[in-house]
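On clarity, I found the account of how folds are encoded harder to follow than it need be. Since the whole study asks how a given chain folds, the encoding of that fold should be made plain. For illustration, here is how one protein appears when written out as sequence plus structure tokens:
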Amino acid sequence: MPLHAVLSEVTDRIIEKSRPYRRTYLDHLETARRQGVQRGALSCTNLAHGFAAFPANDKLKLKQQKNPSVAIVSSYNDMLSAHQPFERFPQIIKDAVREAGGVAQFAGGTPAMCDGVTQGQPGMELSLFSRDTIAMATAVALSHNMFDAAVYLGICDKIVPGLLIGALHFGHLPAVFIPGGPMTSGMSNPEKSRIRQLYAQGKLGRDELLEAESQSYHGAGTCTFYGTANSNQMLMEVMGLHLPGAAFITPNTPLRDALTAAAARRAVEISAHGDTYMPVGHVVDEKCIVNAVVALLATGGSTNHTLHLVAIAKAAGIVIDWDDFSQLSAVVPLVARIYPNGDADVNHFHAAGGTGFVIRELLDAGLLHDDVNTILGRGLRAHCAEPFLENQSVVWRSAPQRSADENVVRGAASPFSADGGLRLLTGNLGRAVIKVSAVKPQYRIVEAPAIVFNSQEEFLHAYKAGELERDFVAVVRFQGPRANGMPELHALTPALGSLQDAGRHVALVTDGRMSGASGKVPAAIHVSPEVLAGGALGRVRTGDMIRLDAEAGVLQALVPDAEWSKRMAEPADLSSNQVGMGRELFALFRNAVSTAEEGAATFGLPPLVAPVSAEINLPNEKAEPFSDEDTQVKQTL
């Protein structure tokens, strides 16, 4: 199947507008590669510090400087279910790397916070900025320059983007991402949603709600709905940074451990000491980024990636914007329905066909680039596979030809909808994104009076006081990255959902975030620019008619132009957003952050310099992980 014309058009546009920055990035990468690993040039005192606590045999390997050294960078902590399984991973990795002829060291840890814990709390205002903090922590871990490759242990919302941004700033090093997997399925998603709405209506108490939530989030692993954490894992697969099918294998199982060991061995094989050197800066290129956007759209993934993918691309010298997302969304079919876009969780998705099935369907439809580098070599089709355990080793078999449950995942020829459900809204209120894959068609156009709130607490107070029993558009502003770090506003979802179920025409317009759990209520989010960057939400007054039209892509305050142009932004007291819960430490981030459409990032594109280097010679062979005729018995990595 030839490439879809729109895919080619968008890719060519991204390549062209990125050209000077990408060239500079690759020049930096090549310079770092030529300089080599620093341990070869360290003084004896420096090097002794670097392996003082190492086992004797591993220390000898580093002294000889002939064996690859693999860095382990981890987001482990045991408070958060998704990260707790990583406690066991370093030893598995060290043993596997040792067997492959190298050594591995735990190079450093990164923060890992959970939006589920901080939801609606002051700590949530650190959440988005934790991504760039994680990138910085990754850089610190790698700054000793003792390593030939790195493995990254991360899974949740800001952690994987932060790790990848950090890794790309060491783009000459090969990188393998190793997930922890989702928890086993608990309470069904429809039942969980029902109980939350009953609690929001005051029909259930806190004890009943806590019992339901505890049945939903009950063990080690990621939350099983398709939010940002699990969208991360889908993207790592389609970007070629995971071993095939690694994303959704549950923690603390023999297959999970075997995949971790196989990933560690692969990091040795693609290091500069191996035969198939593959630096991460040459895996993440323009085509890889386009593939990530397509996979996000095709599976109804998290709207947070309209920020994170922009920032990841920027770290690799690539320029994308919401026009690229919108143009691709118009032609990418929705092939998965995972909660909140459906009832199933990611375990059901994996059982029904999983990532390998989706990648193959999109490749066969001409909607993904196959000619990309991955950690397996050249060619994305090698990732159309799922892992199995045979004699304590991982083998890969071809992804199933048919979905095992077409209520969960379908082929590209018979999708749930013809488009990806992520749309760009424009108008006199700015630019915003909306995810409509879970919004019924009759709710996608709302024209109603604005009710303005300067915080989610104001909204919830009005809801509990019974002041919102009417049609309205909630304009929740001063929630952007400059104002308060751009928190997620999921605490509003049960209330808005309850009002919509009661027959009210409601919508949300905000410069804050809603992420992968964006649900059935139309929500224009990430409105850019935010008020503190000159955005128009500050001009909105309660009572203004607002039109949100997700079908036509319109976000408009229906105020006469003459009046609108004279209005000034209303002031707001943001002092409470600046202190407490560590927020004062992040003042520099709030002052330096870019707009949402620019990734809400605190770093920029590579500074332009004159070209100084030649291309790296990378292996050109096509990756062929399946060797036998029926592709059912597979090579072991």
Summary: The first helix runs from residue 5 to 35. The radius of gyration is 24 Å. The domain at 422-598 is CATH 3.50.30.80 (Glucose Oxidase; domain 1).
